[in-house]
Each structure stands twice: as C-alpha cells, then as structure tokens.
Amino acid sequence: MTDRKASGAVGWTSIRNWDLWSLRPAALAYFLVVESAVAAAAIWLLTTLGTIQDADWLRFAAVMFAITVHLMVVWRAEESRRDESAGPHIDLTSVWTFAAAIALPGALAVLATIWMRILIQPIARRQPHRFMFSSASILGGTMLAWAVVHLSGVSLGSTGRVVPDLGLVLVLMTAAVVNWGAQGMNIAIALKIVTPHTRIQEFLGSRADNMLELSTLGAGVMLGMLMTTHWVGPLLLVFPVILVNSLLYHAAERRAHLERLLREQEQLHARLTEDAHTDYRTGLLNTNGLAEYANRLTERCRHDNKPVTVLAIDLDHFKRINDTWGHPAGNAVLAEVGRILREKLRPGDVAGRDGGEEFVVVLADTGLAQGTAIAERVREAIGEMSVVTTDKYRNTVTLRGRNLPSIGGDQDVGAISASIGVAVLPEHGDHLADAQHCADAALYTAKENGRNQVRVAAGEVRLLPAPRLDEPVDEAQAEVTRSA
Q: Are 434 and 295 in contact (CB under 8 A)?
C-alpha cells in the first residue's frame, strides 16, 4: 500500500506541517469531494452485506487475521521505516487489500481496508484530517480495483481456454494499475494544490518505491487467485509477508547507517581540509591555505582586469615579547592579531599567517590608495591592542599597543606594533609572488625607518604616522600591567 508520508523532499516537507485551518479553500474542497465520493461508494457496497455467502465470510476472516498478525508483528519495524523514509512509504498492506478486492465481495473488501487503516493509525501517528484523506485515497483505489475485476464479467477460475484465461490476466493487470495509479495521482493532485510551487513528479515517489508497490500488488494478485480456490491462502502468506517486511526494515536500517557514515565522513573530510589550510593559533590561513586561496583570488582578479593589493605585515620586536613575557603571551598576541585581521577585512579578502609573526593579506579588487588606507587601519588597530595574558611565571599581565596612552607617569613605551609593506598588481608585477616580494621590500624599509608605519613598494613612502624618535633600541618594548 502506498501511504504517502510527508518527509524529505521540498513538497513532502511542506505537507508534513499540514494544518486543517491553514489549508487553501481549493484543497479543502478537493478533500471533501474525494472523501464524500469514497464514503458514498463504500456505504453503497456495505448495503450488500446481507447477500454474502458463508465461504466469503471464511475468506474474510482469514484476511482479517492475516492483516492483524502482520501489522502487530511489524509494528516497531514499520515505525522505524516510516521515520527513515523520504516521500512515499510502501508498507506491503496492498497484499491483503488488493487480494480482498479480487476474491471478496465489495462490502467485505471495504471492511478489510477500513480495519487495516484502523490498525495502522497508531503506527502512522498523523493528524486526523490527513489520515482520513489518505485512508479515503487507499479505500477508493481498492474499490476501483474491485469494480474492474467484478464488473468485467471474467471468471476468476481457470477455464482451460487460452483467450478467457489471458483475458483474466489482462483484467487483473488493469485492476492493479488502476489501484496504484488512483492512489498515487489522487495524493499527488492534493499535494500540488497545497504546495503549487513544487513539481508533481516530487509526489509520485522514486522508481524503487513504485517498483516495490507494483511487486506488492503482484503478490496480492496471486493471493487473491489462491483465495478463490481455498480460504487458507492468507494464512499461508502471512509469515512470508512478515519476513519480507523484516528484510525491508533491516535494509532500511543498513541504508540509514551507511548514509550516516557517509555524512560523518564528509564532515570529517571537510574538517580535515579546513585544518590543513588553517593556522590554529590565529584562525587565519596557514602557508598552504594562503598559497592556494590567494593565488586563486589573484588569478580571478587578473582575468577580470581588476587590481589586487598585497599587504606584508610583521609585528615589531615580537621576539622580545616572547623572551620577556614567555611564549604564552606571544601566542595570545598572535591570536588577537588574527581576530583584528578577520574583523577589519572584507569577506572576499584573504589573510594568512606566513610563519612566526609575519602575516600576508591579499585584497581583491583593491587599488593602491584603498589598500594603503586598509593597511593603516590594520596598523592602528594592532597599535591599540590590549591583551590580557600570563607571563612565563603564570602571573597575569596586560600587554598594550604602543599607540595607547601611558599609564600613570611612566614613559610611553608601547609593547605591540606592526610594520606593513604594500604592493599592488599589476603595478608591482604580474603574479602574486612578484607583489609579495615588493611588499616584503617595503616592509623592510618600514622596519629600517622606525617601525610602526606603512610603506608602499617601489620607494614610494607613506609614513602613517611618522616614525617615533623616542623608540628605544636595546630595551624591551612593553607596557605591562602586572598582577599576582
């Protein structure tokens, strides 16, 4: 039985949240028309209960027993399969309902289908209005199949003649297609009305789902033919159907397990890829990541005839910070510089740590003037850092940027600052390596002329601000607030 369960694709996700009072008027009208038509046909068939023979009641009892045993045994497995399925859910109950449509009078086929739906409601756990519409679709498909078989006038027993027997095969195949198509198309039309933005193909299920449903109907045909000769047919088939249901459950479990493993592997691969390109101290790109992403950005800008600015950044006297306060303090400074670069740069820019206290920034679609202004903002932010960390003796210290005002009456000697060299493509070369070389040369010029400044490659000097003349050469550059 194709029970259209909502989950997975766009259309099914929308239907999962069906609310009776939020449905469009066209959808409500369609539901009422279908349910009313099915109810009227079912009531008409039920009026014929008084004409049913004893042999039919015996077959009916066997079908009801088989349905009950089947659904009670596979209860938990069906719950799990429904939770894992995406889109239509095939629950194998078509074996019983389609066999009933073939071998039983219409009234008994209606009762068997209603009993099956009553038993399956606790498994499906759906809202009443959704369950009623699905039940109407399934019951309507069963009654249509019954009408095709019993109104065709063909004999359900073997005649020994080729043409009538082949005619019976054709009628049964037609009934199976009508049963399958009526249910699927009815649900698909309803979902299309509720979610008109989705394609109707999304509601018809996958090829594997529909092949399983047709196979289930085929088993229902064989059971129905068996029931016409002996009432014990359902009792013989109930345990094979339970076994198939169990195999489907274990296959679904295995598939879900493999899908989880695949997702975990993809997530692990993504993390490993990220780790391979990321500097763990600063959160910026490492040398490998910088080379890959910066070259990619440079090639894209060159293809679009757009400039690229490269910044070479070096922290001034960083070795003295490590020697004076210890490596934990130096690592804290590096981490704070990484945060500043991520904060000051645009999403499309590339920033990485190029070893030690050196950083490289590649600015996409950025000319010399704008790149120099960005470099100055970065230099100012580094010079205004205040990093709370611990020294080599595990005492709490605060390292301050050299641009911050002095504390108390101490001489204004800053601990943290940066020198920056700026180069731009294509003015300073054709490739990223050319611009990096020129930016490094400008960086060395900034170092030689007092540090804590921005310099542009090719001898063009931008002192922002002018180098400090009171910077000591042989003493540690630190402004420290120490607490025990």
A: no
309 and 229 in a common domain: no
**CB 416, CB 400: distance < 8 Å:** yes
Give one DSSP letter per residue of 272-333, joined into a string: HHHHHHB-TTTSSB-HHHHHHHHHHHHHHHHHTT--EEEEEEEETTHHHHHHHH-HHHHHHH
71 or 159: which leads in pLDDT: 71
Helix, strand, coil % in the chain, rounded to nearest 5: 60, 10, 25
Q: What are phi and psi of 36, to 5 degrees?
A: -65, -45
Q: What is the mean pLDDT of residues 184-206?
A: 71
Rounded distance, CA 442 to CA 418, Å? Answer: 13
Mean pLDDT across 335-346: 90
Question: Domain check: are 252 and 335 in the same one?
Answer: no
In terms of domains, do 201 and 314 share one?
Answer: no
Residues 327, 371 share a domain: yes
Q: Is residue 278 part of a domain?
A: no
Q: Are residues 55 and 97 in the same domain?
A: yes
pLDDT of residue 291 exceeding 80, the answer is: yes
Q: What Å distances lie between residue 341 and 131, 349, 402, CA to CA?
A: 57, 10, 18
What's residue 345's pLDDT? Answer: 86
Task: Give strand pairing partners of 364.
Answer: 308
Distance CA 451, CA 413 (A): 13
Nearest to 33 by CA among 133, 181, 139, 107: 133
- Which CATH number covers residue 383? 3.30.70.270
Task: Using alpha carbons, select from 246, 216, 244 the residue that is nearest to residue 99.
Answer: 216
> pLDDT per residue over 90-103, tens digit each?
677 888 899 999 99
Separation of first and last alpha carbons in the chain: 75
Give 386's strand partners.
400
Q: Are residues 80 and 51 in the same domain?
A: yes
Strands 386-390 and 396-400: antiparallel
Q: Which of 267, 299, 318 is the C-terminal boundary of a domain?
A: 267
Q: Which of 123, 98, 126 lies closest to 113, judged by CA? A: 98
Closest CA to 314 of 256, 253, 361: 361
- pLDDT band for 5, please (50, 70, 90 cuts): very low
The H or E element that residue 387 is part of is: strand 386-390
Query: What local confidence, expressed as pLDDT, does residue 437 receive?
Result: 92
Smallest CA-to-CA distance from 463 within 450, 452, 453 is with: 453
DSSP state letter for 155 = -
DSSP string, 15-67: HHT--GGGS-HHHHHHHHHHHHHHHHHHHHHHTTGGG--HHHHHHHHHHHHHH
Residue span of the structural domain in which 414 resides: 287-483
pTM (2 d.p.): 0.53
Q: How many domains does the chain have?
A: 2
